[in-house]
Amino acid sequence: MMSMEKGQRHEGDENCTFGKLRVLCFDFCDLDSRRAKRVFASLSSTVESLSLRGNSAIDEEGWAILGGKMEKDGLTRLRALNLLGCSIGIRSARSLFPFLPSSIEMLQFDVYPTEEEEDGQEEEEGVGNDLEFLCAPLGKWMEDGKGPNLKRLSVKGNGGPNALSLFRSLPGGTLEYLEFNADRGIDMDAWAALSRKMQKGEMGNLKQLLLVDCYLVSVNAKVLFPSLPCSLEVLDLSSNDQVGRTFGWDYLGRHMEEEGLPNLKSLSVRDCRLTQEEAFTFLPSLPSSLECLDLSENPALALQGRDATLSGISALKQRLGVLRSLKQLRLRGVGLGAGPVLPVEELFSRLPPSLIVLDLGSNRRTGEGTWAALGVALRRGLAGLRELVLEDCGLEGDRALDIIPHLPVSLETLNLSDNRELSEHAVRSLSQKVKGETDRDREDPKKSVTVSSALEELRNLQMDSCGLNDTKAEWLFGSLPATLQSLSVSGNPGITVGGWRKLAEKMKRGCLPFLRHLSLEGCNLDNEKAVVLFRSLPPSLQVVDLKANGSISPSVWNVLGQRLQDECEGLKALQKVECQVPGRTRRIRKRFVDLLPSLLQSMLSEQ
After folding, report:
1. How far is CA 316 from the centre of its chain?
2. Per-residue pLDDT for 101 more than 80?
3. Nearest 5°: phi and psi at 268?
4. Secondary structure of residue 289 in the 3-state scheme
5. Which residues pair with 487 in a beta bridge?
6. Which candidate, 530, 418, 514, 497, places its Cα nearest to that of 463?
7. What residue spans carry the Basic and acidic residues bias annotation (predicted)?
8. Which of 562, 503, 513 is nearest to 539 (CA)?
9. Alpha-carbon span 236 to 166, nearest angstrom
10. Neighbours of 364 (CB within 10 A)
11. What is the 3-state secondary structure (H, E, C) of 30-72?
12. 3-state SS assignment for residue 36
């Protein structure tokens, strides 16, 4: 497997300098300590933003150089530091966090002790049997008043019980964004400390609180939810599947009912194992200010409980009338169709006209009339919808005909992937809808569909694994609009060279002048198909995904390489190629690589 992209690896120079640069990004550059030392030692005092994401090979010695640079007041203007994916160890944290400059406004990092550190904790002097987690040095830094300008803090990983020291020391007067992600070790004392800080009004500027996968159990929710500040605009509680036990969600509902979150604009409770009864404890109290609501991956949400009036869908349906500012609604994998059909149909009928994004993916078990109800809603009240996700919704055969003719002209993104047997009638209807023409079926007038108003704003189209054959492909490719920026038709191996030639002709004629992303993974591309496509790729293309097409020979890959070198009609904008090049010898692979531009070659990595 090969992944090639511009600008990834920076080897560094023994005397590298960065002049007066203010923003430096070394994300995923494979920096080890040797390279990192040179980079850190050469940082200028003008640097305001430093991003080192994904450089997990830097060890304690490397971070000590950066810490030393900070200690000597070498980075007094640094405002943003991103260390996500760097796997900061305990010793590394001690070498770095105490010396962070007071100018820091945004800090992002994940905390994972190395195996050696975990094995040797008990023998380390001054630690004993109590593991000194990585949050402690940062908590001390804030406690000493060294973080007076901190506005955004993101911690991912095992902060553990010492989150207590961190929560106690948070600079409440300035903090606007707080994120703890995948930290399942935070105990009751830490949550209580955060709650007290909020209750005292010390977090009055907090606007975004993200507590994803933090093992927030009901007893902690009882302490935390009532203290959430009224300033909060974004609340993400995703992947906390223990909140519901002993009525944890009820405390959130009460707080909202008492108008404790009057400014809340975004709420996500994705993948929380919500039951219909639990959802009913807070959905009826959603504030009218809400603009984004994500209830995805709660498969029991649509089920009918012991009391038919207490289903989650019924509660949401009733509250939609108040949510007049709702712009995004995500109901992926909530079991639409697993419960009674009527509440779902009524839900669609009450979708607010303010809606811009509607995600109904992974709801396969829908009953008769469900998608017809959505079609009616699209036609009557969703004239401003820009993104519609119907991925894996069981739209096999002609079921999509209930929806496609009614797609609003405002639509920019349409995802129909994993509806594995879309009928030819459905694809033809989509083709006609994109072009704004009338589709008449001469053989079966009952399947004739009248459509109007072309999808002139369509920019992103995803039809992966839709069972496309040549007939469907010709309909689809022939109708692609000039506005299209991203096309994904991966997982459609049934298209022959004739079908791909239709797409090639479209690109060759310059009919897709803005196409930036093309995904053809797992499409059974062979030499003949690949040559047709490679010679026609538009110069606007930035990313092309060709993985899982192992029948393309090295000589045909060279056709792509030649396009990259072509001065007149070359792929000058291309930044990333995902592909498989057969042949295990370096010589065969090198023939292809040698034809790539130097920047693209520098990104080459074999997996």
Report:
1. 25
2. yes
3. -125, 125
4. coil
5. 461, 518
6. 418
7. 434-447
8. 513
9. 20
10. 17
11. CCEHHHHHHHHHCCCCCCCEEECCCCCECCHHHHHHHHHHHHC
12. helix
User: How many Cβ atoms sit within 10 Å of the Cβ of residue 64?
Assistant: 20
Question: In this model, does residue 419 exceed pLDDT 70?
Answer: yes
CA distances, 288 to each of 261, 319, 427, 433 (Å): 10, 9, 39, 35
> What φ, ψ does residue 393 adopt, rounded to 5°?
-110, 15
Work out the pLDDT band at 607, boundaries 50, 70, 90. Answer: very low
Q: Distance (Å, rounded) from C-alpha 416 to C-alpha 360?
A: 11
CATH superfamily of 484-492+506-607: Ribonuclease Inhibitor (3.80.10.10)
Rounded CA separation 104/98 (Å) = 12
Amino acid identity, position 335 = G
C-alpha angle 449-450-455 in degrees, rounded to nearest 5: 105
Where would I find the H helices in 97-217?
A: 115-119, 135-143, 163-169, 188-199
Beta carbons within 8 Å of 380's beta carbon, 6+ residues apart:
none
Residue whose pair of structure tokens reads 């850190």 in the numeric block = 40
Element (H, E) at 591: helix 586-593
The dihedral formed by the CA atoms of 343, 348, 354 and 358, expressed in degrees to the nearest 10: 110
Average of pLDDT values for 477-502? 97
Q: What is the DSSP letter of 285?
A: G
pLDDT one-digit tens code per residue, 283-303 = 999 999 999 999 999 998 877
Question: What is the distance between the alpha carbons of residues 603 and 8, in angstroms, rounded to a whole number?
Answer: 5
* Burial of residue 147, with CB atoms counted within 10 A of its CB: 0-12 exposed, 13-18 middle, 19 or more buried: buried
Residue 551 identity (one-letter amino acid): S
Q: How far apart are CA 220 and CA 213, in angstroms?
A: 14
Which pLDDT belongs to residue 73? 79
For residue 383, the tally of other CB atoms under 10 A from its CB is 12
Task: Please name the residues in contact with 342: beta carbons below 8 A apart, sequence gap of 6 or more.
Answer: none
In whole angstroms, what is the distance from residue 546 CA to residue 365 CA?
32
Cα–Cα distance between 230 and 208 in angstroms, integer? 11
DSSP for residue 50:
E
| Statement: residue 71 has pLDDT above 80 | yes
Asked whether the beta carbons of 414 and 407 are under 8 A apart, the reply is yes
Burial 76-110 (b: 16+ CB within 10 A, else e): eebbbbbbbbbbbbbbbbbbbbbbbbebbbbbbbb
Quick one: how far is CA 11 from the chain centroid? 30
Q: DSSP letter at 562? A: H
Which residue carries 């974004």 as its tokens?
234
Note whether 53 and 78 are within 8 A (CB): no
In the chain, the N- to C-terminal Cα span, in Å, equals: 5
Tokens at 460, concatenated? 């992103």
DSSP string, 489-515: -TT-TT--HHHHHHHHHHHHTTS-TT-
Mean pLDDT of 557-573: 79
CA dist 450 → 16, 395, 412, 446 (Å)? 65, 20, 21, 11
Structural tokens at position 541: 């293309």
